[in-house]
Amino acid sequence: MLTDRRSALLNLIVEEYVDTALPVGSQYIVRKHDMPVSSATVRIEMARLEEDGYINQPHTSAGRVPSDKGYRYYVETLMAEEALPWEEREMIRHQFHQAERAMEQWFQLAAAVLAHQVSNFAVVTSPRSKETRLRHVQLVPLQETSALCVVVLNEARIRQQVMTFREPVEQNALSLSAERVNQRLGGSSPAQIRRLDPPADELDEMVTHAVIDLLDEEAVALGDVFRDGVREVLSQPEFSRSERILDLIDVLEQRTLSTAIPIRQLSEDGISVVIGSENSHEAMRECSIVIARYGAEGGPSGVVAVLGPTRMRYARTIPTVRYLASVLGDLVAQI
Q1: Exposure winner among 53, 86, 155, 286, fewest CB in 10 A?
Q2: Is 209 exposed, middle or buried (CB count within 10 Å of its CB: 0-12, 13-18, 19+)?
């Protein structure tokens, strides 16, 4: 736990760096905030924060910048949220009431409004059922030792996976195995399937494992994705170096977006914030994601998220994401 003085100093460093994108020096802080201590005292406290991993010094002669640990402490302990003014909330709701009563337009509008409000990349996904269940499995022969496992899920979604066998398997054996698996697992969720004893037949067991894998993939997949704010996020100074921007563009263009949005880390109630190195996706290690779920409890739900540099205005972004999620939840509930 940080002392009050170091907490206050870290708060100033984070907010100054978020505003300016420039390393923060001790003299600058003392002069701007009229602190009742000398710059030498602030330098000592900065050195302690650096030793504890809350800030970094990018260059020997430079000031300090927050680390991922520093941002995490700020978000969880120091940050004072900037509540959206009433006028802005009413303007946002008015835009949705002006739009046609088509969900696709609502989602695209939500992404555009969110990107504009926070000056970063915004993602909104269409609602989907929270619980994935198997409806039907089919095995399509490819070669003597391989077959395509096609799984039909609830809401008519489809997943498929190539299965490879040690020995040739005939079409009749594939059909019989699929029939047994359908009888045994049809209508089941991944959790229910895992609680069952493994099937006695080796082929049935292979198909069951494939089904579980495909159901698990579907459980963390995004619905239809609506995006906005590519220009806003790419204009941030953090992404001015070409090698960094290419990785980020690959995510933003949706080729790897579904793996970059951390659905597994999304809390059921409220906001989740994933900062820098907490991201599992390599291209996102210098980015933060603020993400919320919308939709009725127990029913279909979607995701509202903002992606940007770790130098994100969290105090503004978090309440804005929360508000957009509540607006979409209200709209979807009316359908």
Answers
A1: 86
A2: middle
From 163, 197, 219, the end of a domain falls on 219
**What is the reported pLDDT for 116?**
93
pLDDT at 256 over 90: no
Give per-residue burial for 244-279: e unless 16+ CB within 10 Å, then b.
ebebbeebbeeebbebbbbbeebeeeebbbbbbebb
Regarding whether 242 and 104 lie in a shared domain, the answer is yes
Q: How far is 98 from 195, CA to CA, in rounded Å?
A: 49
Q: What is the DSSP code (8-state) at residue 210?
A: H
Pick the most confident of 128-142, 162-176, 252-266: 162-176
Which domain CATH number covers 21?
Answer: 1.10.10.10
* Res 45 pLDDT > 90: yes
Strand partners, 226: 124
- Listed in sequence order, the residues at least 6 apart from 78 whose beta carbon sits closer than 8 Å to its beta carbon are 7, 10, 11, 14
CA contacts within 13 A on the Cβ side of 161: 18
Task: Give the three-state DSSP class for 62.
Answer: coil
Angle of helix 202-219 versus helix 171-185 axis, rounded to 10: 60
Kindly state the tokens that stand for 236.
């941030």
- The 8 Å CB, 24+ separation contacts for 194-203 are 201/177, 203/165, 203/169, 203/173, 203/174, 203/177
Query: Structural domain tally of the chain?
Result: 3
- Tell me, what's the pLDDT at 331? 84
Q: Which helix (H) or strand (E) holds 117?
A: helix 103-118
**Residues written for the chain:** 335
Domain span at residue 38 reads: 4-78
